[in-house]
Amino acid sequence: VQLQESGPGLVKPLQTLSLTCAVRGGSITTTDYWWNWIRQSPGKGLEWLGQITNRGYTAYNPALKSRTSISKNNANDTVYLRMNSLKPEDTAVYYCAAVAGIFTTTPARYTFWGQGTQVTVSA
pLDDT tens digits, residue range 75-98? Predict the structure, then answer.
């Protein structure tokens, strides 16, 4: 399974971020993987943002739940992240990652990772 993130790169404060994770080599509905978004801000560790299962159930980091939404398009095997009301502290490299059929917020347990996409929040 290969994952490829894409997004706008630069976003202004208070705007909404939309990121795409294209999944290749496996179907996001039939493959028993759950799809996660994680980020890493400069000088900080990995932060789990949320997850969507192959059946479409979602879970979110409580600290970001009010601003975060994860969805997927089964037809084109794509997973999406939306985050609104962006702040400069949301500047980070955003990753999508897959884990086989378990709920875990521990990035070290994720099997497949994309290369990440840089998001900078600045006016």
Answer: 999 999 999 999 999 999 999 999
